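Components:
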Amino acid sequence: MDSADATVEGAPDHSDDRMVDSVLEWTRAECERLDRDDPLSVHRLQFSLPPGLIYLDGNSLGPLPAGTAARIATAVSQEWGEGLIGSWNSAGWIGLPQRVGAKIAALVGAHDDEVVAADSTSVNLFKVLAAALQLRPDRRVILSERGNFPTDLYIAQGLIGMLGKGYRLELAEREDLERLLSPEELGLDVAVAMLTQVDYRDGSRLDMARVTAQVHEAGGVVVWDLAHSAGAFPVALNAAKADFAVGCGYKYLNGGPGAPAFLYVAREHQSRLHQPLSGWMGHAHPFDFAQEYAPEPGISRYLCGTPPVLALTALDEGLDTVLAAQPHGGLAALEAKAARLTECFIDLVEDGCSEYGMTLVTPREAQRRGNQVSFAMEAGDQAYAVVQALIARGVVGDFRAPNILRFGFAPLYLRLVDAWDAAEHVAEVLQTREWDQPRFLRRHAVT
Ligand SMILES: *Cc1c(COP(=O)(O)O)cnc(C)c1O
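Structure:
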């Protein structure tokens, strides 16, 4: 018997760990030892995770920080209950979009005054995409990827429909972006490249500095979607000379379901451009109640309406969980830990499950992936059912159509033993065909 199989055949009895030493680098004991020596391990205590659950979906909805419930309770009972409307001033509610934005700026390599927290990623994309097009009035092409997250494409389609005038969306394969941006490809007059740094399906990561330089070389500007980047690994918007960015508050930033999103506009562009959702919070003097819109000169002109105070309060608390890692090496240390977590999981799943038709679709090179591992299975229904069977076992990943099993490894609270145990569960579900039950094949509204 291949000793690697021994690690996955038995249920969570780890007595045979020593047998795998000669074949795999990974043993459960080694994972435990590395976890004990991990200076980031204390950060797990910042979250109230259900005991026994292996949560591999923090890339889709970050877990509840331990401090959020009390923080929200205070905001509700004191700031709202007692302070009432006076809290817009006394509790500083009115400045939340900028203050929370400044915290996010520290995580994405931007200046404090280049980021605000507001609205949803979709809405923010509409605002910055409309602004970005004004920088290239003679050009008509928005370049994006066929596999981009659908809302990004839908928002571009909606904006183009409003603008008319020959604007169009060109979609490329990720592998083809560089060629399309090359000087030889004269056919494409790219005004804006709208790109998602980490692909939500396969987890591949674009080199932001390199691609931004290529877009600029081709005469365009770039809008980065950082949904799966912000809070996951170091992002250097300023260093990359990125023009615009948007991102989610509820993924790696742990802001809670439907948390406000963020947007970034480089200083040099801010006051030159208008965004079409010209609500009063973007006005230079909202409380003058003037009839004519006069945008605030800086990043605040990218706001629209009244900030969602309770949701921003939760996001602020979520951000503190990520910022708390700074004394332990911050995002660079988190990135290194995520590389190890994902590598461990890839090695173990490939070792235990390859004969069941699970194919890795995430890049093997850690630098080329986000904190995510995705496998494809030939049959989409089977991939869905395997994910459901894993959830029933307390290993929460997700399914992405048509046939992807997706596992997020948020390094702030996951341990190597979680990667080890999750891989073992995957193998057991496949070996025993546990997934092959009607209850696991029934599709829910949210996958
Ligand atoms: C999660 C995600 C979104 C979500 O947008 P919402 O407006 O929050 O629904 C957008 N883009 C990408 C790339 C995502 O991964």
